[in-house]
Every structure is written in C-alpha cells, then in structure tokens.
Design goal:
Length: 214
C-alpha cells in the first residue's frame, strides 16, 4: 500500500511540491514550523518502518574518489564565488569569520547539524529510495531532484538562491547517485554551504552576522 505507485505519487506531490511551495506564501511561521516538522517526522517514519534503513555510515565507501571529486569541485566554486563577492562588494569578503569568529563557528555547527543533514535525508536518502524506481532516465531523475531542491528554497524569494540551490541539487544528486551515501553528500553540502557563508554570500540564505561593514 505505502509503496504503490498511486501512494508514491500522492506522497511526492504533497511533500515535495505542495508543502515547499506553500512556505513561500505569507502565513504564520507558527503554522509553517509544525508542518515542516510533521513532514520530516513522516519521512523518518517511512525510512525506519517501511523502508527499514539504518542511519549508519556506509561501509566500503570510495573515500579517495569522493575526496578527489570534492576537491576539484570546491576549487571551482571557491574561485567563482570569491570573484563574485569581490565584484559585488569587496568589503563583504570573509567578513563574518574575520569580524565575528565565535558566531561564525557556532553557525557552521548549527547549520551542518540542523539544516544540512535533514535536507540530505529528505532530498537524497528518502527521495532516491522512494522515487527513483518511477523514473527510467537517471539524468531526468537527478534533474527533477534538483528542481525540487531549489523549490524548497523558494521562500527566500531570491533568484540567485534558486539558481545556486538548483546547481547544488545537481551536484548532490549526482554524488548520491554515485556513492549512495547520506554521509558523503552531507559532507559535500556542508562544505559548499559553509563556504557560501564564509566567502560573504550568507545574507541571501539568512545566515546571521552578514551586516555590511560600517
């Protein structure tokens, strides 16, 4: 029943289209938060009771291949984003780590634990496990995953955020497709997201401490 095509399509629509899109609407955060928590609780329930997965680090991971891929991609991202910040507002470059190091370290920890890992459980572990069999094309599946990942950030109402999260969704989707590890894709997500904050682009993602220098 909970794995039938009709059930999966309904679940897909409610969790990954209707709910995220609704967060872009103007209604109380005290309604949005319980909805988000209920959705996440449902996902954990399905993963544990229906799909019977364990949240353990996968054995046999090719850390070397992952590290090489991560390093190359990160260098490219670091160069592009640094150039962007320098062009847009050079005073913002590395502003938070230089001026608010304690806040910077705290936010990185909170971001990784409370934002990155839940997102990867939802958009990679759960999404791939539940819906990959519905798609014949792997490329189309990863593309749809990236589109929906960007949709989850629609509430920021920022075009650059939508573009960046779509590109991030492609990277994370391809990583999960290759390594099938929530741990690895969470590391990748945390690194890129933390870099965005570090380099001086965190304000668009509501990271604190990004006030323009006086």
């Amino acid at each position: 029943m909970m794995k039938s095509t009709s059930y999966l399509l309904t679940e897909f629509f409610l969790l990954f289209i209707l709910l995220p899109a609704s967060f872009a609407l103007d209604y109380s955060i005290w309604i949005k938060m319980p909805l988000a928590l209920a959705g996440f609780a449902y996902i954990i329930f399905i993963l544990k009771r229906v799909e019977r997965i364990s949240f353990r680090i996968k054995k046999g991971i090719d850390w070397r291949a992952f590290g090489k891929r991560l390093l190359i991609t990160f260098i490219v991202i670091a160069i592009i984003t640094s150039a962007y910040v320098l062009y847009e507002d050079a005073s913002a470059l590395f502003y938070v780590p230089k001026n608010k190091p304690q806040l910077f370290i705290t936010i990185l920890f909170v971001y990784t634990l409370l934002s990155v890992w839940p997102q990867e459980v939802i958009y990679r572990t759960f999404f791939f496990l539940r819906y990959e069999p519905l798609f014949q094309s792997k490329a189309l599946f990863v593309f749809v995953n990236a589109v929906l990942f960007s949709l989850a950030h629609l509430f920021f109402k920022n075009t650059l955020v939508i573009i960046l999260t779509f590109l991030g969704g492609l990277l994370f989707g391809l990583s999960y497709l290759k390594f099938r590890s929530t741990t690895l894709v969470s590391i990748e997500h945390a690194l890129y997201g933390s870099w965005i904050y570090t380099v001086g682009m965190g304000q668009m993602l509501a990271f604190p401490g990004m006030e323009a220098p006086q």
